[in-house]
Amino acid sequence: MPPTASILEEAARIRSLFLATGAVYVKADVLQPAETLLDLYGEDIRARAYVTHDPLKGEMMLRPDFTVPVVQMHMESRAEPARYTYSGKVFRKQEEDPSRPNEYIQVGYEVFDGKAPVEADAEVFAKVSEALDGLHLRAATGDIGLLLAAVKGLNTIESRKAALLRHVWRPRRFRSLLERFGGRSPVPPTRAALLAASDPMAAAGAEIGLRSMADVAARIAALKEDAAAPAISGEEIALIDAILSLRNTAPNALGILRDIAVDLPAISDAVARMEQRLEAMARLGVAVEALEFEGNYGRTSMEYYDGFVFGFYAAARPDLPAVATGGRYDALTRVLGQGRAVPAVGAVIRPDLVVQLRGQA
Question: pTM here?
Answer without folding.
Answer: 0.87
